[in-house]
Specification:
The complex is a heterodimer of chains A (about 260) and B (about 950). Chain A is an alpha/beta fold and about 260 residues long. Chain A has 6 helices and 11 strands. In chain A, the strands form 2 sheets. Chain A has a 9-stranded mixed sheet with strand order 2-1-3-4-11-10-9-6-7. Chain A has a two-stranded antiparallel ribbon with strand order 5-8. Among the domains of chain B are: about 1-150, Phosphoribosylformylglycinamidine synthase subunit PurS (Mth169, Chain: A, 2-Layer Sandwich), CATH 3.30.1280; about 790-965, Alpha-Beta Complex (Phosphoribosyl-aminoimidazole Synthetase, Chain A, domain 2). Helices cover about 30% and strands about 25% of the residues of chain B. Chain B has 31 helices and 40 strands. In chain B, helix 11 (about 260-270) packs parallel to helix 25, helix 24 runs parallel beside helix 25 (about 725-745) and helix 24 runs parallel beside helix 27 (about 835-845). Chain B is globular.
């Protein structure tokens, strides 16, 4: 696993950058945080990396809308570079606020690059409040690099705006057809359900999306928060095998081996 | 050109904010409003074409899926005559982070806007008179400290600029005032100084042969405020105990209550792992060979009473800056939050004038802590909420923060010639007089008089500042740091320069808006500011780090001036203060404390054949009931170190005893965090209340697997007006209890704080005094997080063991409260057996003999058992005849509900019971029952008759219902 470099992008209000770096390092990569101002000043930095991560937090305080300001920076300073990055067979991951950024910059679900026609958004939870709770996730595709097909995983969410919505039903249909639903919220036994199984009221229970290549993924739950046995809320009463969150980072790293 | 974009939700998507406003209007008792629509408004100045404005709207400001917008000003929906339009704009010049972000983003789009402002607009449907409109605007929509309200649709929003300040040096004539004049001056200028203090100041200026300037007087008032200097704890107290007839039985003079009780325990215990105690902004102890951890808990009671959301947010924000300002700066790793409110089911009619409804207070406080803590990316992991009628005018908001720092960064000292640099947020008029305000009593008029003392928080400013300060710390770019808390720059520079003096040029301080005079600049308590002492040769590099992440940092002066502080404005001297007089000139004064033991009796309640309803009633008490609604709104897992969460058990919803956090992700060493708070016992004797709070805090961390060898504790007193002899006597009793228990448990205090004058004057002259409240926070080092346990029962067939003796101690218990009684037998910690029990339980957990452990506190054995059962999703069968009890304690209700301290319930695998018995040779314990597959809690009395028999799902339901909002 030599020389696999992960860039964890940081901005004002980012707050999950360090544990995200640590998760990638546990999976065998070398991870660094880079402030967005630094990347704007030196865009070439990106060439040294194979994986770009937009981690969780409240970038720019969720000003205007969650993820919007950083997404705007991505669009206007790096869009072509990120496109090249993806086309060069590299990976992009957005977690929680990072997922919001990827959606609001049009990178997810992608396929619509005319600039002003975003067809997907992530908005306020139906519950009307921020919540931290654990959820079960069923993979919705076998084309996404980050996912172990068929493995139902258990991760925590912590957000107030996690409801994935589409402008038209046709967008959802297309996303489904192209295998771009990364994860759906389910219960322990894999069944769909209302709150709290689907914690935010997401359309079609969607918890995460990937792009058409399967190399760009965003999800609301936090895989970096389940990479150690004691992260699991019931580790004192259940045997914990390999932590579910770690699989996401390992899959990403394994893609390059 | 002024352009306006108004944004509203499409009809398919709920207007969550509008619905909240509607609910709040109904809370005010206004029933005529049918609906509220909320809009976001952007006012953009600049030469922009219409298509450019559409681009800004569509690509940046509007969510293309959920929202629509219009350019220009929209009216009310046609045909609805009874619609009120209200717009809320920021006061001229108040920082508008959304606008700043939008300006930057518009620039990123390669468009040019001169300025952006934001506002909120509400269309309120339903008949309202003018008074009601004002009320809604004032109480629900706007905070008049920073916002202004515009009714209707025709007025233009206010301009963005305040008037610039023209220097005018103000001198206060004090030398010739008589006593009455001195007191009047103190009152007029909100100095909250008493006569002795005013006379001392007068003498000082007579000797100097000049009059003070206003800023000098303000600085003295702030430095000498109860909030900053804790004169009650440091003064002299003549303490007398009297008997029922009022004759003195015992008298003593206490010089410095803090030093003779709390700090004395720390000194005498002299634990080698204490690194820095009672010196810095937070107490520091050793974490491992490389790192120290520090802990500070503060209160923010008065601001939270007036503006719960902002008060609580700045409470936690300010508390986070304490570890950030300890030594050379710690990285915050966990928050704690403990609140005391009046019961949230009060009717409007029950409220005294001038207080907010406790439900609104609670929602606002929780929201403030949530938004600030979550945005900072600090997990909020431990807390408690206590409900009592007497908190109605004085809700208590305790915020705690733990930080970690390398051991070689635990101390900092400013040096002669270091530059005074203010970092972070700008200075505004917010929070003026916070320190002095919080040192006074609340009255029904405070809500209006002191709204300027409420501060405005912005977590992202603080987060940016934190990120860059940690980088600067790693590069050793400054020699000292402290936060601007109460007293603002005055207090920060005053403290850092205590041994040096300083020269400060006040016009250099960056302002949020023009118009602040030099005094306002100096004493403003605007948030998110810290002061560092920068050696001149490091200025370039440190400035580069701050600029690189858009953090403002400005040199405003230099440390060192022969122990004198010089304040200048545009070169003119406006204040000169002698550091010695400032820090040591405060007259010590003597107060009387008279302790009269209340004449109380135990009630005579009939014994019953079934106590199931009593158990359910106690589980449904707000203080005992599930706090899940609150806990889930806090991110308790950010930073990736969560090992034991606040909610545990088979459905992740049982009440965990303490949280465990691993601050270093590559290590399994951890910190357990717990708390104890039992103000109800103060009504009988604050001495035993304090000991019980310490016992509870320790039990909590022991129960998850901490070792009693390294537990540090913190004290936070919230008390009434200690000018009154009875209040002060209670405080003395509590401090004495702190000393005795800390010594017995060998747990040193490492930091503390007090908030006095928590009394409320109603408009009809009645005084509501809070129960003497002491929060004990505990932080323990856990060697290996993998050995921790939780309180939920795990497996049927396992044995239930109770450790510690149960005594007839129902005084101030939940059980008596339910029956409208107080009683007399308050739980008294047994300082001989308590430490033995803690050690024995800790050892049993270390040796893997215990699969779950829960402490017995409010509601006693019955509540602890119920919680363990429903958290684990299994039943329990218990026999009271096996409960280890004191000889005279045999009544069923005593065994079930007594709140005797130092007791634990353990779940043990049957094969381990012999080993456990060996370990427990010198503590009392009993095997009281077992875990059952049948999901019922069955408790039998000595005649083998079930006196509690309930389905655990029913018990859980009654426990969860009250605060399931």
């Amino acid at each position: 696993m030599t020389n696999l470099n992960v860039l964890v992008l940081r901005a004002a209000g980012t707050n999950c950058d360090q544990e995200t770096c640590f998760a990638f390092e546990q999976a065998g990569a070398t991870a660094r945080t880079v402030h967005v101002n630094r990347l704007i000043a030196e865009p070439k930095l990106l060439h040294d990396y194979q994986i770009l991560v937009v981690p969780g937090g409240f970038s720019y305080g969720d000003d205007v809308a969650a993820g919007r300001i950083l997404a705007n920076q991505l669009i206007h300073h790096f869009r072509d570079m990120v496109r090249e990055f993806i086309d060069a067979d590299k990976l992009v991951l957005g977690i929680c606020n990072g997922f919001q950024v990827l959606v609001k910059s049009g990178l997810l679900p992608g396929g619509n690059h005319n600039g002003n026609g975003l067809n997907t958004t992530i908005t306020y939870n139906d519950s009307g409040k921020f919540e931290d709770r654990w959820v079960w996730l069923e993979p919705g595709t076998d084309k996404c690099v980050f996912i172990t097909p068929g493995r139902r995983i258990y991760l925590p969410i912590a957000h107030g705006e996690g409801k994935v919505c589409f402008a038209e039903d046709t967008v959802l249909e297309q996303v489904k057809q192209q295998g771009q639903v990364a994860f759906r919220y389910v219960d322990r036994d894999g069944r769909f359900g209302d709150y709290p199984v689907n914690p935010n009221g997401s359309i079609d229970h969607i918890a995460g999306l990937c792009d058409a290549t399967g190399r760009v993924m965003g999800l609301m739950p936090h895989p970096e928060r389940f990479i150690h046995k004691t992260h699991h809320p019931r580790w004192t009463r259940e045997p914990i095998e390999d932590p579910d969150g770690l699989t996401i980072f390992q899959n990403a790293v394994n893609y390059f081996t | 050109m002024v352009n306006r974009i108004e944004i509203y939700n499409k009809s398919d998507y709920p207007d969550v904010h509008g619905q909240d406003v509607l609910a709040d209007i109904k809370q005010l008792g206004i029933r005529t409003v049918e609906a509220v629509q909320s809009m976001r408004v952007f006012v953009i100045e600049g030469d922009l074409k219409e298509d450019q404005l559409h681009r800004i709207a569509a690509e940046l400001l509007v969510d293309p899926v959920t929202e629509s917008y219009e350019l220009g000003r929209t009216g009310a929906p046609v045909g609805l005559a009874q619609a009120t339009l209200i717009e809320v704009h920021l006061q001229p010049g108040v920082t508008d982070p959304v606008a700043t972000s939008a300006e930057m983003a518009i620039q990123d789009m390669a468009l040019a806007a001169d300025s952006v402002r934001t506002a909120r607009k509400y269309i309120i449907l339903g008949a309202l008179n003018d008074k009601q409109k004002q009320l809604i605007a004032q109480k629900v929509l706007a905070n008049d400290c920073i916002e202004q309200v515009i009714f209707g649709r025709d007025q233009e929003p206010p301009g963005a600029q305040g008037q610039p300040y023209q220097l005018s040096r103000v001198t206060i004539h004090i030398r010739n005032l008589d006593d009455e004049g001195l007191l009047q001056l103190s009152k007029q200028r909100d100095l909250f100084l008493n006569l002795a203090e005013m006379r001392t100041i007068q003498d000082y200026y007579r000797k100097l042969d000049r009059e003070p300037t206003d800023v000098e007087l303000e600085m003295l008032a702030q430095t000498w405020s109860e909030h900053c200097v804790h004169k009650t704890f440091r003064g002299t107290i003549e303490f007398t105990e009297v008997n029922g007839e009022g004759t003195a039985q015992k008298s003593m003079v206490i010089e410095n209550l803090l030093k003779s009780t709390i700090a004395r325990a720390t000194r005498e215990l002299a634990r080698p792992w204490c690194i820095s105690v009672f010196e810095d902004n937070a107490g520091v102890i050793e974490f491992d060979e490389e790192y120290g951890v520090c802990f500070k808990v503060e209160t923010h009671n008065h601001p939270s009473a007036i503006e719960p959301y902002g008060g609580a947010a700045t409470g936690i924000g300010g508390c986070i800056r304490d570890p950030m300002g300890t030594g050379l700066g710690a990285k915050p790793i966990a928050n704690t939050d403990i609140f005391c409110f009046a019961p949230p089911d009060k009717t409007i009619e029950e409220l005294p004038a001038g207080v907010l409804h406790p439900r609104r207070v609670m929602k606002g406080v929780v929201g403030g802590v949530r938004d600030y803590g979550n945005r900072m990316g600090i997990p909020t992991v431990n807390g408690a909420i206590v409900f009592d009628d007497r908190y109605i005018g004085n809700p208590l908001v305790f915020c705690g923060n733990i930080g970690i720092m390398p051991k070689n960064k635990c101390f900092g000292h400013a040096r002669e010639g270091d530059l005074v640099m203010v970092v972070g947020g700008r200075t505004g008029r917010d929070g003026i007089h916070g320190a002095t305000f919080s040192s006074g009593e609340m009255t029904h008029e405070h809500e209006n008089l002191f709204s300027h003392a409420v501060q405005i928080g912005n977590a992202i400013t603080e987060k940016k500042m934190l990120d860059t300060l940690l980088t600067a710390r790693e590069e050793n770019l400054y020699s000292a740091i402290t936060d601007c808390g109460a007293g603002g720059l005055s207090s920060a520079v005053g403290e850092m320069g205590e041994e040096l003096g300083a020269v400060v040029d006040l016009e250099k301080v960056p302002l949020k808006y023009q118009g602040l005079n030099y005094t306002e600049i100096w004493i403003s308590e605007a948030q998110e500011r810290m002061v560092i002492a920068v050696p001149p040769e490091k200025l370039t590099r440190v400035s580069e780090i701050f600029a690189g992440e858009d953090v403002e940092a400005t040199v405003i002066g230099t440390f060192g001036n022969n122990k004198k502080l010089l304040l200048r404005y545009e070169g003119e001297l406006v204040g000169e203060v002698d550091m010695d007089f400032l820090h040591n000139g405060l007259p010590k004064y003597t107060r009387k404390a008279v302790w009269e033991k209340p004449a109380l009796q135990e009630p005579d309640l009939p014994e019953k054949g079934d106590y199931t309803n009593d158990l359910k009633g106690i589980l449904a008490d707000f203080s005992v009931a599930s706090k899940e609604w609150v806990i889930r709104q806090y991110d308790h897992e950010v930073q990736g170190g969560s090992s034991i969460k606040p909610l545990v058990g088979i459905d992740n919803d049982g009440p965990g005893d303490a949280a465990v956090v691993r601050p270093r992700l590559d290590k399994d060493r951890a910190i357990a965090i717990g708390c104890g708070i039992c103000p109800q016992y103060s009504d009988i004797d604050p001495y035993y209340m304090a000991m019980a709070a310490i016992d509870e805090a320790l039990r909590n961390v022991i129960a998850v697997g901490a070792s009693p060898d390294q537990i540090a504790i913190l004290d936070n007193f919230c008390w009434g007006n200690c000018d009154k002899a009875d209040r002060l006597a209670g405080l003395v009793r509590a401090a004495q209890g702190c000393y005795d228990a800390a010594m017995a448990y060998a747990s040193p205090f490492i930091s503390g704080k007090d908030s006095l004058n928590n009394e409320f004057q109603t408009d009809d002259g009645e005084t509501i005094n809070i129960p003497g409240t002491l929060l004990i926070s505990a932080m323990a080092i856990v060697e290996d997080a993998n050995r921790c346990i939780t309180m939920d029962v795990k497996k049927s067939g396992n044995l239930i063991v109770m450790v510690g003796e149960t005594r007839n101690e129902l005084g101030a218990s939940q059980y008596y409260k339910r029956h409208g009684e107080l009683g007399a037998n308050v739980p008294r910690v047994n300082l001989k057996t308590g430490p033995k029990i803690m050690s024995a339980v800790a050892r049993a957990i270390q040796e893997h003999l215990v699969v779950s452990c829960h402490d017995c506190c409010e509601g006693g054995l019955a509540v602890a058992l119920a919680e363990m059962a429903f958290a684990g999703g299994l039943g329990l069968e218990i026999n009271l005849s096996d409960v280890p009890a004191a000889r005279e304690t045999n009544r069923t209700d005593q065994l079930l509900f007594s709140e005797t301290t130092s007791r634990f319930i353990l779940e043990i695998e049957p094969e381990n019971i012999t080993k456990l018995a060996q370990l427990f040779r010198d503590v009392r314990f009993g095997q009281i029952g077992r875990v059952t597959e049948e999901t019922r809690l069955i408790i039998k009395d000595s005649n083998n008759k079930a006196i509690i028999n309930a389905d655990i799902a029913d018990l859980k339901e009654v426990w969860q219902t009250p605060l399931r909002w």
